Structure formats: C-alpha cells, structure tokens
Amino acid sequence: MKETHPFNVLKYCPRCGKNHFEPKEGPSLKCRHCGFHFYVNAAAAVAALIVNREGKLMLVTRGVEPDYGKLDLPGGFVDPGESVEGALVRELKEELGITVQKIEYAGSAPNEYIFSGYSVFTTDLAFKVTTDELGELIPEDDIQGYCFYSEEEINYNDIPAPSIKYFVQQFFQNERNQT
Fold this sequence. Notes:
- By secondary structure, the chain is of the alpha+beta class.
- It has 3 helices and 10 strands; from the N terminus they run αβββββββαβββα.
- Strand 2 and strand 3 form a beta hairpin.
- The termini are far apart.
- The mean pLDDT is 95.
C-alpha cells in the first residue's frame, strides 16, 4: 500500500480530532472514540476525446502538478451536485473555451490521482466530443497547451495516468476497427 493511500495519511478523526481513526473492513476508517465511519470512495472525473478533421486526437499538456508538462486528455473532476455531462461541458469551456455540440459516452476506467501527498481514487469517464470550435483555441485553467496527434505520433510514456493512456489506446483501436 502506497504511503499516499488514505489509510496511511488520515490519522485523526475529522469529527472529534482524536487519533483513534483506524482502517476497518472494506475501504473504510472508523474512529474508536466517537464512532465516525468514513468510506474511501472513488471520485468522478471526465475526459474528452476530441478529433480534428484529419482524424487526429487532441491531447493537452498539463500546466499543474501532478504530472506538470505531461500529456493528458482535456477534462477534470466532477463537482458536487454536478452531472458528468455538465462537468465535461464546464471543463472544456474553462480549459479551452470550447462549446460542446454533442457528447457520446466512450467508456470508464479506474485511476489513482495523487494530490498533495494523498491518493484520490477516481472513476474516469471518457466521452467523444463534437464541437465546431477547433480553430484558435486558447489554453487556460490548468493546461498549458494542446496538440492533435495521430497514433504514431504519441509517446505513451508521456501519458502518466493509466486511465487516460487506456482511453487513448482504446480510441485508436476503435478507429482501426472501423476502417
């Protein structure tokens, strides 16, 4: 178990503050003092598969840690009270100024996102996105750039997130199978 796993990081009960917060059966922690029970669940995140007219897939360059400067798909976390579709539309507007015309579910994959020394387990959902706005996009928010890639142009070692690597590989495999 990684040192960033919640069982190794969360030592004090968030309700009473006592250091009796211990792992229990299943993915949970429970306080021996006040009985507070906390489950380690997956957070939802979204990723966009955007293709240009040449059939190349957009990958963005991360502008924040973790994995600053590495490749990713545009997207991000789903906010509380937000649908995954709403999160996708919001993230694409924030990161690239893109207005979404159509989305189509492509698949999901588990991931572990380490932030501030803490493992955040995610269920990442990928969507194929249709938009008419692929001209001069301005990278903002937490990305520093973007580029469109053919399968041969991608160095998969530059994609650190296993779920994103999986989505990109599946995308190109599906494209090959359709031709």
